[in-house]
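Standup notes
- DV: blocked on the single-chain target, sequence here:
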Amino acid sequence: MSVRAPVSTGRASPATPLAEFAALSQPPVFGILIHSVVLIAGIEVLIELSYRAYRAEWIALGVLLIAAAYVIVHGLISVVAGDAMVVQVFGRYRGTVRDPGMHFVNPLLRRRKISVRIRNHETAVAKVNDADGNPIEIAAVVVWQVEDTAKALYAVDSFQTFVGIQTETAVRHVASAHPYTSHREGEVSLRENAAEITAELSAEIAERVAPAGVRVIESRLTRLSYSPEIAQAMLRQQQAAAVVGARRTIVEGAVGMVRLALEQLEDQGVVDLDKERKAVMVSNLLVVLCSEQATQQVVNTGSLYQ
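- DV (later): unblocked, structure below
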């Protein structure tokens, strides 16, 4: 007893994910030729009836041929560059026509135009808590394009709305996963590591919008700041950190200059200083080098030991 293998019907099973494929189409000349032949045949039938006896079946045939010609002409479609034409019949996806120009398809198919041009979407300013719990305001712009027209129309309800919501969700997630400024060495922050944050944001948006057949080309942060309620406090903190850093640089430079001065005085034998005189000289030089205001010279006419 032999067992026959199941014959493939060429139709996708319900479990098979929907994907775009090219629709069956013909050159427009083919459609125009069929339309012309059917239309001329219908007109000829009606003309012949004017010379012959009245027969209802011939009248019905002529009217039917003219109606068929009217239906056939609707199979001619025009596809503009940057657009695609999705065709379906009785709710079933039958393919996509992407090549610009005139095409002839089955006139009974329903056609839906979809733009495959590059688009921009800018999110609204969102208030999010960063990884340190500080409220920040963040917004981003994403550049995207429809890559799979079948998924865009049939996998989601509205792919434009889907892209907008998923982009905002990704922006909030990335913002809450990183601090605004880094406090530890090697920590990725929103402000200092723009390239890493942009790459992470683009990857997350691309993963979220993939079910809609959308390809993410680029994404960028357009706004990043502390919320108004803590902006002044954080500004003072940044100013204090900047002042401390500047002071540290000044002190490090002053100490180096004092060390260099003492070494050159000793090497060249200009003066022989004991520990007390070195301490006084170091103190005076540090005051002169680190002071924000101009120092006043004081001439000592006495001795350090009196």
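- Follow-up: The longest strand covers residues 214-226.
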